[in-house]
Write a structure and sequence with these properties.
The chain has 416 residues and is an alpha+beta fold. It has helices at 14-33, 39-57, 65-71, 103-119, 132-135, 141-148, 153-165, 171-175, 181-184, 230-234, 288-311, 322-325, 353-363, 383-390, 400-410; strands at 4-5, 11-12, 168-170, 187-189, 199-200, 211-217, 220-226, 238-241, 251-252, 278-279, 283-286, 316-320, 329-334, 340-347, 372-375, 396-399.
Length: 416
Amino acid sequence: MAPVQSADNDVFGETEAFFLLNTAFLVAGEALTAPGLRPEERLATLMECHGEALAALGPHASLSFGQFRAKLRGPVRDLLPDWISSDGLEDLTVLDGDGYVTEDAFDLRWESTELLNLIKKLRDFGGGRVSPDRVRHHIAQTEVFEAIAGRGPEQYILDRSNLITYPAGDTGELSGLGLPLKAVGFYTDISYQALYHDWWFPCPVCRWPMKVTQHQAGGSEYGKAECFYPQHADTGARYSFQPTNGPPLLQPYAEAFRPTAREAPLHLTVPDQPPEARPAAGCKALTRGVWRYTTVPGLPELRLHQELERRLAGKATVQLWPLGDAYDHRVEVTRPDGTAAEFKADLKDYTHAHTLGKSIHRAKGDRGGADWLVVPDHRAGQVPLLDGVCGKYRMRAISATDFAEMVCCEAGVQWV
């Protein structure tokens, strides 16, 4: 299908159509399971999303309302027309087995939004009940930046660090952080998806409320609590519990992952002791988007900074979020022979490497001036693709441990 020219001379092509479709799928999937909706409200949202999907597919599309609903529980590739590439999306689904929107689908929506904003914003999704604006609980990094900027670089580092290390808690604890009023607005009530009766469980890695589901096996009931971020869940933040009227006691669902000695310094380890249940009354948590794109990548950013600062004391200047957060890390190293080297790095945690690659291409490199694109170690498989794109713009892509080891080597410091 050829791109469609709009009345404003904007080109509506594959990227724009994919964004519109992905938004419709995500909103509709949420509407299928969200509690508290009257049947007519649920139906109205699904019909609106069906209309959004038809608008993206074009005037000759054939997708009945029944087909649209049925496809929400299948793979994303079955929701896309032939003229939209499904590369890298082969196993992606909108809803998981428990009926919740998957983390990969949420990530894809945010990541495609970021890419779309680099092209043009063709359409305002504002307005409407629980339509795209209402359940688009992601907040772009620019909004986080605007909320905590303007109070000086040291205060910015403190405020952003607090959003990373305190993504949830009781209101007294959160009010003591001294965040600006706009940033306080990022905290909302604990989501129904993370509640067992009136209890919630903080992830032992990121401290955000874990997803809670109930299951049956062999005639017995049991509950599960696992982090919404797959990496945390897969490395040990996944638990089971027995039904109870009081606070449930979590038991590890599987043995925690143990990294290699080389990757251990930057690994966010799951402790042996499971987290305790906390009452939901009086507690708040960051919206999902702020948690996913501030807290989640912020944890490896802070760990990388702390490890480099500790290991390179007296041998390098290590800065976090320099120049008003133009990028994430600047390390100025004095080599053993007395010469100097500078490393400017930006850490990106994208689920979908091809979307990040397109964003780099659209921006013609890093908008803040970083020379290195760093990905968390568990995304090391993305490096070859990203390095190919970065190479066109005098950048390099690298995993976090490889970057840290390289910088330490330049300073004459052994990594492990």
